[in-house]
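task queued by scheduler; priority normal; single chain, no ligands, no partner chains; default sampling; output format set to structure tokens
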Amino acid sequence: MSILRSIILFLTFAVVANAAEHCNGIETGAKAYNEGDFERAIDEWRTCSDNGIENSDLYYNLGNAYFRGGKLGFAIYYYKSALRLDPSNDDILHNLKYAQAMTRDKVDEDGEENPLLAGLFKAHHALSLKAQMWTLLGIFWAIALLAVARRISRNGKAKNILIGTMFALSCVFGIIAMSAGYKVFVAETEITGVVTAKDADVTSAPSDKSQTLNTLSEGTSFEVLSEQGNFAEIRLGEKVRGFVKMSDVGIVK
């Protein structure tokens, strides 16, 4: 099954799984989406969102509709909004990563990358939070069984092997636990934004008359440091820092 077909399949399940009685636009939007009328689907679902419904499936559906409608920035914004409410949902993460792979802006860091840090960074992002929690549970029970085996074993060599294995698993458990804890911390504290316009100018000050430092393309994600009137102070990597118009971006809260 192709990725695009997977997106449609996931959307169907999201609509069915949630209670449409809270907003009639959920069912109407689903009907419009299945008919290929993505603009109408967006209008219906946005009406539900504007009426105060905060639901991961609703945001996920909006992300799918915007993606199918060719609006990458809004698609990423709503996928991120859905993931903030349901951080262990692999379907949302799958579609978000696919959409982000289509963005143009990349962050290039200066200097030579440390192989050890690079390996830890890749390992940190290799598993979703949900997968990490299941892995931690499996390691916990493995250590418990090894502890029982060590206690009943009468062979000194076997006991040493069991102790060594328990120590190694405990180290792995600690690393994964720190990674999972950091993901939870970031999800709860970090504020991110996404460029929803075709592009957004990064200026030196929160003013229309200030100097333009950079231009970010649609779909680019960044860290939000503060909000100042009609502008947001942002940071992207070590090179990009400044202000963008709130009308050009979406802030994931």
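post-processing summary
- Residues 47 and 110 are 45 Å apart (CA to CA).
- The chain is about 60% helix and 15% strand.
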